[in-house]
Each structure stands twice: as structure tokens, then as C-alpha cells.
Amino acid sequence: MPKNIYFTPGPSALYFTVEEHMRSALRQQIPSISHRSRQFSYIYEETVAHLRALTDLPDDYQVFFTASATEIWERLLQSCVIEDSLHLVNGAFSRRFYNMAAQLGKSAQMFEVPDGGVVLPAALNTNIPPELIAITHNETSTGVQQPLAHLKEIREKFPDAITTIDVVSSFPLVELPFEYIDSAYFSVQKCFGLPAGLGVWIINQKTIDRALKLAEQTNTAHHGIASLWQKYQTYQTPVTPNVLSIFLLNKVLKDMIDKGIGRLRMEGKYKAALIYQLMESHENLKPFVSNPDWRSQTVLVGDTGGRTEQIIQKLATQGIVLGSGYGSHKKNHIRIANFPTHSKEQMELLVDKLTTIYEG
Ligand SMILES: *Cc1c(COP(=O)(O)O)cnc(C)c1O
């Protein structure tokens, strides 16, 4: 069977080196090693070192592993919030985080904008100083990107809060200003091109200290920041982690370091520009996010005016898989992942195919 090219926003195409790394993992029997072994601790430690090297992560930030990004939402709320969290809601994922806070009995506040927009810092008017501020950098549901320039203003407004940012579908292509961020997280099936099933949580000492201080009052029955931190001292995890996935992440991080983060980011911009240019030049396929400054560079969303199903089907017959719209946008949007594994040539091919569909 010929191989498909997956432009779906997660899971997506595997990073092009993953197949070989998976073979090597099996040869080395990685899935069978104990997570209490020195071999595992070494893999964990090296993965953190690679992440630091690739993304200029400051020494004050540590890296925890969970089962998913969604799990990190719950761990954050349970470990860092007694009462009040504040959520910038710019799409379906940020709304789900807010809903989870409400489900866990927190008095969560939400500042919401219509899909395609971003929450401006000036709109964050509250008399209750929040313990946690939740920001979603790249809304995979609509392709909107919250400008990072807002982070400084948010920090100045709420200096004591734990500021946490969802970079699930933009990291490592986004360059984060860590001085304004206490916690950031991603899952590996988006930009890293790995099989799903691993959440990666970047967390600073302020957040860890806050969680330790609140430990008596918070409910972290499964595990929380305190237990993750305790096990991290010897590069272990409280529960049996996805060792295979951590191994693969370590290898892909090294591949990305060798390629160079600057080059990855530049190629990402080039490929995004190709697609947005195509959308700008066709009446019947508009970028969904109208403000160019708010358009995602990694999840490119076009409004098809109701033709999504036809487009997706036509491309599918040619081995190209696009994402449909998210939720209520299902029939009107296409979503195109622009991750490091998608080559310039693949993106150019996609532009050709879409042009043929639109120009006949
Ligand atoms: C995919 C995604 C998530 C959820 O990730 P899981 O690994 O499925 O928990 C959260 N936030 C954003 C922005 C996402 O794109």
C-alpha cells in the first residue's frame, strides 16, 4: 500500500527518523527495561539535557513526564490551585481546561473571545488575584496564536500567579520568553512527530515551591507536582512511564539539535507562508484567522465555505490526509499541520494539489 502523507494536526506524520529509532529501541529491548534502573535514569537525564540544549531552557526549569497534556491540566489545578484559576479562552482546548477547573470545584474565571480572536491583556479585569493563569499559545482548534508579547503584560498584572502556557502544538518551533512563564507543556504527537501517549511538562522552581507549600491543602491522590519532584531527584517518575516514548523523544531531540533549531523555525515560517499565500489568493479558501499577526505557524486553518468534505476526499484519493474543522467548524474548515517533519517538498506538493482543486 502506498504511504499517506499525514498533514493532520495530531497525531500527525511521524518525524522522519522515528522508524529507525523504533527499530533501535526494539533491538535494545528498551520497552522491557525497569523505570527504576540506571539505564532509564540516564535516558531521562539525557532527554532533559537535549530539551535544554534545543530550546534554551534555563537551569531553573525542570522537566516532568505524564501520560498526556490533558493530564497536566489536572495536575496543575490539583497541585497549584486552592480556589482561583483564570483562563484565557481562545478556542476549544483552552475551554476544556477551564471546564476541568470547574469540574474540580475551583472558582475558575474565564475571559473568552470568539473563535479566531485572541484575549487581550487589557481585558483581564478581575478583583480576585488568580493563583494560576492558563494561556493557550496555539489553539489547534482554530489556528489562532496568542501573541507572546502579551506575556510580559500579563506577568506585570499578576506577578504572584503561576503563569502556565499550553504549547502543545507549537513547541519547539515557538521561542518562549521563559522569564514570564512558570510552566509550559506539550504532548509528543504534534510537533515532535512521535506516537501519542506522553506529556512533557516544563516547570520552574516557583511552581514546584508553590505546590510543595500547598501540599497539605491540595488533593493529589494519583500524583502531583510534589511526587513528580521527589522522584525527579534521581531522574525517575512516580508511576511506570512510557519509556519507549521517552527514548524516542530523546533521539528526535538530538536529531533536531543536529539540524539546528534556527533552521527548523525558518523552514516552518517558509512553509506556513506558502499555504497562507495560497489561501490569500483564492476567493473560496480564506485563512480563518483574519489578523495575520494572530495566525498560527504550525496549524494552518482555512475556511472552505462548506467544501471541506469534498476537498478532504479529493486529496485522500491522492494519499494526502488533511484535518477537517474542529467541533462546530467541521464542515467549513481544513486544518493543515506544518510540523518539522513536513518537508518543503511535501508542502509544495500540497499547494499544487490544492491549486488544481481550486483552479480545476
Ligand atoms: C492536542 C492538544 C491538547 C491535548 O493533548 P493530549 O496529548 O491529547 O492530552 C491540548 N492542547 C492543545 C492546544 C492541543 O493541540
The secondary structure category is alpha/beta
Question: Can you count the beta strands?
Answer: 15
Q: What CATH architecture of the largest domain would you give?
A: 3-Layer(aba) Sandwich
Q: Main β-sheet: number of strands, strand sense, barrel status?
A: 7 strands, mixed
**Low-pLDDT stretches:** none
Rg for CA atoms: 20 Å
* Shape category: globular
CATH topology of the largest domain: Aspartate Aminotransferase, domain 2
Q: According to CATH, what is the class of the largest domain? A: Alpha Beta
CA(first)-CA(last) distance: 28 Å
| Small-molecule components bound | pyridoxal-5'-phosphate
SSE blueprint:
Elements: E1 5-6, H1 18-27, H2 38-55, E2 61-66, H3 69-80, E3 85-89, H4 92-103, E4 109-112, E5 132-136, E6 138-139, E7 144-145, H5 150-157, E8 162-166, E9 183-187, E10 199-204, H6 205-214, H7 225-232, H8 243-259, H9 261-280, E11 286-287, E12 299-303, H10 308-316, E13 320-321, E14 323-324, E15 333-337, H11 344-359
Parallel strand pairs: 1-13, 3-4, 3-5, 5-8, 8-9
Antiparallel strand pairs: 2-10, 6-7, 9-10, 11-12, 12-15, 14-15
The protein binds pyridoxal-5'-phosphate (PLP).
